[in-house]
Amino acid sequence: MMKGGGFQVVHGVELIQPHEQWDCTNVGFENNCTNMERNELSMWVDNIAKQLIEDLPETSTESLQTDTTMVFEESIVPSTLGESRPRKMTKRSYSCDGSGSEQLYCSHQLGDQTNLSRLDEHDLSLITLLLECAVAISVDNLGEAHRMILELTQTASPYGPSCAERVVAYFSKAMASRVVNSWLGFCNPLVNHKGIHCAFQVFNNISPFIKFAHFTSNQAILEAFHRLDRVHIIDLDIMQGLQWPALFHILATRLEGPPHVRMTGMGTSLDLLVETGKQLSNFAKRLDMSFEFHPIAKKFGDVDMSMLQIRSGEPLAVHWLQHSLYDPTGPDWKTMRLLHDLAPRVITLVEQDMSHGGSFLDRFVGSLHYYSTIFDSLGAFLPSDDQSRHHVEHCLMYKEINNILAIGGPARSGEDKFRHWRSELARNGFMQVPMSGNSMAQAQLILNMFPPAHGYSLVQGDGTIKLGWKETSLFTASAWTSHASR
Amino acid sequence: MDTLFRLVNLQQQHYQQQSDQSNSSRTSSSSKSSTQQNQPHHAQVEECFNFFMDEDDFSSSSKHFYNPYQPPSTTTTPTTTTGTPPPPHDDLNLDFSGNWSTELLLETAKAFADKNSGRVKELVWMLNELGSPYGDTDQKIAFYFLQALFSRMTDSGEQCHRTLTSASEKNCSFESTRKTVLKFQEVSPWTTFGHVACNGAIMDAFEGETKLHIIDISNTYCTQWPTLLEALATRTDETEHLRLTTVVAGGGEAVVQKVMREIGQRMEKFARLMGVPFTFNVIHHTSDLSNLNLSELDVKDDETLAVNCVGALHAARRRDSVVSMFRSLRPRIVTVVEEEADLNFGSDGFEFVRGVSGVLERLMLERAAGRAVVDLVACPSDDSAERREPAARWSRRMHGGGFSPVAFSDEVSDDVRALLRRYREGWSMAQCSDSAGIFLSWKDQAVVWASAWRP
Q1: Domain that holds residue B272
Q2: Distance in angstroms (rounded) separating the CA atoms of residues B161 and B413
Q3: Looking at beta carbons, which residues of chain A come within 8 Å of B133?
C-alpha cells in the first residue's frame, strides 16, 4: 500500500489501461452471480407486506415495484413481489399478539419460498409489528402507529445479535421521527457532515460497495479520457475525495504522460471541500500531475454554467455516487437540465437500487428490503459487537433510513424525484456507454478483497454492472454520454 | 392531524447564506400554505431554523461537537451511548456536558406555558432530532418526553402507558435493575439523600431499643438498608433482632417476585456478615396501598416499629387512608421521602412539567422510564400513579393523620451534607420553610423532600 497525502492507493487493484476501442455498441453479458441462498428475511418481508397492503381497502398495489428488476430481465432474481403470490389469508393471522407460533404458521402457508429457520420467534414478531406500524402510518393513523412504535423501541435494540432486530430497531426509530415530523408539519434532519464522512470511510473499509462504485467509475472515466491531454472532472458530491487518488495514479502512469486535470468538487461545506482539495492537490503533486481544484459549496442543480467555468477543448466527466444521506443535488429537473447544458463526454452514475419516490408504503417496503440486505451483508462476517459495524449502521444506514421514511416522496418534499436516473438519462438525450469488460474485471478484483466474496453478487448486463448481496442488487454502475459531445 | 408538509431544507438555506455572504436571512416567515407543494421551487425556510445549523457550528474545534462513535459496552442493557449528536446553536445555552435534556424539557414547558407555538415547534424538533430510545440518559429522556407529549396531544396516553408497562416488564431482571439503581446512585444523590436522612432518623428513634421492625414501602430496591445494618452493627446498644418487611407494589408478577427473592437473599447474607439477627419478608401488594392487609405485616407488640416510605406515597390513591393506616400501626417513627413537584395543576397547563425536571431523569434510570413519563404527561389525573404533591401538601396530610414532625438531628444534617459533598457541584440541602423536613435541591430548585414523623 502506498500512502500519499493521507490517501492510500491500493496496488492490488490497478486500473487497466483501455485497449479496446471506445465502442458503444458492445453490450456484453456475463453472469458472475455466485450466490445460491435466498435472502430469507427480505423475501418474507415482501410477502407479508404485500398481504397487508392488499388487505387495505383503498391502496393499489400496482405502484409497488422494486428497482432490482427495472432494467434487467435476466437478473439475479426477479422481484419477489411479482412472483407467485401468497395465498390470501385472513387479516387475523397477521395480528401480533406476541405469539410466535402464529407467525410461524403464517410462514408455512406462504409456500415454499420462505425458509425461516434462521429467524426466530422474536424477530418474526418484531417484523410483523413493524409492518403493521408502517401500514398505520400509511393511512395516517398516527395514534395507533405511535403506540406500536413505543412497543417496538422497547423490545428491539440496535445492539441486538440478529440483523433483523437491528433493522427493526432503526426502522422503528425512523418512524418515531416521522410521526413527530408529521405532527410538526415539516421535516429537517440534522446533518453532521464530518460525522458522515468519517462513517463513510469506515463503510469503505468494511464493505466493497464504495470501492466498487469508485473503481468501476474510474475505469469508465479512464476509457472516456483515452488520449486526451486536458480533462475536467466534476464530482457532484466529493466528500473526502476517496475515489480520485486511484484515478490520478493511473492517469499519471499513462504512456503519453498525465493530462492536465481540473477537478470541480461539490459538497456542502466550503471548509471541508477546501480540505479535500488540498489533499488531492498534494497527491497530484507527488505524482507530478498538473492539477487544479475548484470547490463549490452548492448543490449541483443550483449551479449555473458560469460558476463551473467550462472551458472549450476540455472534455468533461461528471461523476455521481448516489446515496440517501442528504440531498446533494437539489431538484432533479434542475440537475438534468444542467447535465444537458454541460454535454459531458462521460457521466458515471452509481445508483442505489431502491426507489426514493412513491408512496410511503412503497418506500417502506423497498427500503426495508434494501437495508435488511445491507445489514445481512455486514452481519455475515462482522461480529455483533464490532465497532465499525455499529458505526456504519448507526451513522450511515440509520441516517438513510430516516431520510427515506421521513422525507422521500412528493407529498413531503414538494418535488418529484426521479424514480430511476438511468431511464431519465436515456429519455433526455443521453446515450448509454456500456461498462467494459475491464470495469467488470475491476469490480471482480474489489470483491476478492472482501470476505465473504461468495455472498456478494456481481452481475453485468444491459451495459451496467450491479453489485449486491445474495440475490438482491444494491448498487448499479453505469456510464452515459451526451450525444452533443460526440 | 395537520399534514401540511414543507421540506425545510437545511442545505438549501445554508447555500443561500453562503452565496448571499451574509447572515441576515432571518426573515420572518410565518406563512403556512396548506397546499401540497408540487412545484419544483421551494418556499422559504421557517424563521425558527435560521439560527440553526450553520455548517461552521460543526467545526472540529469544540470538544462538544462530533464525538467519534462510541461503541456500546458489553452489557446487554441498552443504556449505553450511541454516537453523541452535535449540539445546536449556542442560542439556547445548553450545556451538553450533562443534563441537556432536562433543560430542553424545561424550555419546552416554558414555551408551552407562554403559548409560544413557534418556539415549541423548534424545541420539539430538537427533541426529535436529538432524542433516541437507544442512547444515553439524556437521549432517552428527550425521546420519551416527546412520545409522552405526542400521546397527550392525541389522547392516546393510557394506551401507551399499558404498552410500555407490558413491554418493560418483559425486560426486567435482577441484574439490570441492580445495575440501573447503582448507576443512578453513583451519579446523583437523588435517592441516597433520602436514605441517609431516614436512616439517621430511624437510628435516633431506635436508640435504646433492641427488638426492631421496619416496614419498608419504597421504590429503591432495598438499597437503603445495608447502611442501616452497618449502623446497627456498630452502635453501642445491642440489637436482639431486626425484622424488615418490604411491601412491593405491582402485580406480583413472577419477574418481580424473582427480583425480590434475590434481593432478600443478599440482604440476609449481608446481615449475617454484620452480625445482626435479621429476618426479611416481602409482601407483594396489587391494589392501592390503602387496601393493604395489616395483618400481613404481622406487627408485634414488643417491637419498636418504624415505617419507611420512600417514593411510594404518591402512587397511592387514597392518601389520607394510607396515613391513618400508618397511624394505626402505632409506629415509633415514620419517615417519608417524596420527590418535590407541584404536579396537580390543571390538565391543560404544562406548568407541571417544570417540576418534573429531575423526576424524569430518575424515571429513566429506573427503567420505568417511558411508562412514567407517559403517565405523567399524558394520562388523565385520576388514573395516574405518578401524581406528586408538594412537600407542604404531604405535611398537611401527615398532620391531619395525627402525626407531628420530628426534626432531623444535627448529626443527621451533617451526614447529609457530607453525602452531598461527594457529588458534583450544584446539590444542596435546605430546611423547609413552610413544612417539616428537609429538601434536596439542585441549583436551588427543591427536588426531593425527606421528613420524619411520630404520632
Answers
A1: 187-340+388-454
A2: 39
A3: 153-154, 173, 176
- Distant-in-sequence, close-in-space partners of A108: CB < 8 Å, separation ≥ 6: none
Which of B33, B58, B126 is the best mutation test for A, with the most CBs of A within 10 A? Answer: B58
Q: What is the pTM of this model?
A: 0.62
pLDDT in tens, chain B (455 residues): 122 222 222 323 333 444 443 333 333 333 333 333 332 222 222 222 222 222 222 222 222 222 222 222 223 333 323 333 333 333 334 445 556 777 787 777 777 767 788 888 899 999 999 999 888 777 887 888 888 777 766 665 555 555 555 555 555 555 555 655 565 566 567 778 999 999 999 999 999 999 999 999 987 778 899 999 999 999 988 889 999 999 987 656 676 777 788 889 989 999 999 999 999 999 888 777 888 888 888 889 899 999 999 888 877 878 888 999 999 999 999 999 987 764 433 333 333 343 343 444 444 444 444 444 544 454 444 444 456 677 888 899 999 999 999 999 999 999 999 999 888 777 889 988 877 899 988 767 777 899 999 99
Chain A residues with CB inside 8 Å of B373's CB? none
Tell me whether residue B8 is in a domain: no
Of B71, B82, B163, the CB nearest to A387: B71
How many interface pairs between A and B have CB atoms less than 8 angstroms apart? 192
Number of domains chain B contains:
1
Long-range contacts for B255-262 (Cβ within 8 Å, ≥24 apart)?
A: B255/B169, B255/B172, B255/B173, B256/B172, B256/B284, B257/B282, B257/B284, B258/B174, B259/B172, B259/B173, B259/B174, B259/B177, B259/B221, B260/B284, B262/B174
CATH for B439 = 3.40.50.150
List, as ranges, residues 281-320 from B with C-beta within 8 Å of A: none
Q: Are A176 and B147 in contact (CB < 8 Å)? A: yes
Of B9, B58, B134, the CB nearest to A192: B58
Q: Do B129 and A189 count as a contact with CB atoms less than 8 A apart?
A: yes
Contact check, Cβ <8 Å, B8/A186 = yes
| Closest residue by Cα to residue B276 from B244, B301, B304 | B244
Contact A315, A285 (CB under 8 A): no
B213 in a domain, yes or no?
Answer: yes
Model confidence pLDDT, tens digit, residues A280-316: 999 999 999 999 999 999 999 999 889 998 888 899 9
Run of H or E including A47: helix A40-55
- For A135, the enclosing helix (H) or strand (E) is helix A121-138
Query: Is there a contact between A332 and A367 (Cβ–Cβ < 8 Å)?
Result: no
Residue B213 in grid coordinates: 421492625
Say whether residue B85 is in contact with chain A using an 8 A CB cutoff. Answer: yes
Cβ within 8 Å, pair A159-B78: yes
CB contact under 8 A, B147 and A150: yes
- Read off the amino acid at residue B364: M
Q: In chain B, which residue's Cα lies nearest the Cα of A169?
A: B134
CB contact under 8 A, A169 and B134: yes
Q: Which residues in chain B (351-410) have CB-CB distances under 8 A to chain A?
A: 370, 374
Place domain A203-358+417-482 in its CATH homologous superfamily.
Vaccinia Virus protein VP39 (3.40.50.150)
Residue B54 lies in a domain: no
Top residue of A125, A138, A146, A150 to mutate, by most chain B CBs within 10 Å, is A150
- pLDDT of A397 strictly over 60: yes
Using CB atoms, pick whichever of B53, B69, B72 lies closest to residue A159.
Answer: B72
The residue type found at B384 is: S
Are the beta carbons of A151 and B125 separated by less than 8 Å? no
Task: Return phi, psi of residue A251, to 5°.
Answer: -65, -40
Q: How many CB atoms lie under 10 A from the CB of residue B301?
A: 7
Instruction: Give a yes or no: residue B248 inside a domain.
Output: yes
* Inter-chain CB proximity A151 and B163 less than 8 Å: yes
